[in-house]
Amino acid sequence: MDLVSLADIRAAAHAVAPTVLRTPLLRTRWDDRLWLKPESLQPVGSFKLRGAAHAVARLDPAGRARGVVTHSSGNHGQALAYAARAAGVPCTVVVPEGAPTVKVDQMRALGAEVVPVARERRGAEADRIAAATGAVLVPPFDDRRVIAGQGTVGLEIVEDLPDVDVVLVPVGGGGLSSGVATAVRALRPSAVVVGVEPALAAEARDSLAAGEVVVWGEERTYRTCADGLRLPLSPLTFAHLRDRLDGIVTVTEDEIRAAMGRLARDARLVAEPSGAVALAARLFHADDLPAGRTVAVVSGGNVDPDVFAAALSAPPQP
């Protein structure tokens, strides 16, 4: 399988520079060996803007005229809507019924046409719209353009902390972790890249252990509050992670909420549950991780207000 290369990621960095914020590394005040990469500060509140902006930047004139379509529970849809609007490209987003209202409202505010469907039909509906209209399909993660765009997170981490030892990155469908692992391994071979996912949606862990993509099914993965991490790997992202990821750690729902609270109270960062899993691994599973200078990717901050309030009301953790 043709995997994304460091050259692809460097090209993506150039293509997305006009649209994407180069987020800083923030050293935490409670742990002098821990830095945060706050992708929650992106204009649309998540790292997804990187992959979406790269896909839009690569459209030919005919593709730009026909527009783009995707399926998304929220963050990728917002990102594609933002990137498409910036480029003057029409955008349609198919969302699962029950997707977080805060994310769906933002998609519409960014000018996207939003099409709600039953969650098991969202991929098929996006395919149907693409076939019927000629719109270019931009998948949330199963796409080399998207993976290369997400990989710019890893590129920036090593540029800003050249002696990084450990990078903790959330794993859902695997686009972000595939890109980050590609960049970090190429630029800092001695560093370890560890994926983090909810224990209630640990399909990547099981896939890597089995040597093939394992799908739990949405009736199981929808139990986690980390709505951005409920999808299984694709064959493409599985191939990247099998070759380039050093391991997987899983975290509980209580650990995710506690990490959200720590980010809000002590780092002044709003994180959604999916965005807090990497810090949760560092806070509660440090014994399972290598020692050294560590970066935790805070992948997004588009959190439902009620979910955020519940996390803040939970007792602070050490």
End-to-end Cα distance? 44 Å
Query: What's the overall geometry?
Result: globular
> What is the count of helical runs?
15
Report the sheet with the most strands, covering strand number, pairing sense and barrel closure. Answer: 6 strands, mixed
Overall pLDDT score? 95
Helix content: 40-55%
The value of Rg in angstroms is 18 Å
Class computed from helices, strands and strand pairing: alpha/beta
SSE string: HEEHHEHEHEHEHHEHEHHHEHHEH
Strand percentage: 5-15%
Q: Can you summarize this structure?
A:
This protein is an alpha/beta fold and 318 residues long.
Description of the molecule:
With 318 residues, the chain is an alpha/beta fold. It is 46% helix and 14% strand. It contains 15 helices and ten strands. The protein has a six-stranded mixed sheet. The radius of gyration is 18 Å and the shape is globular. The model has no long low-confidence stretch (mean pLDDT 95).
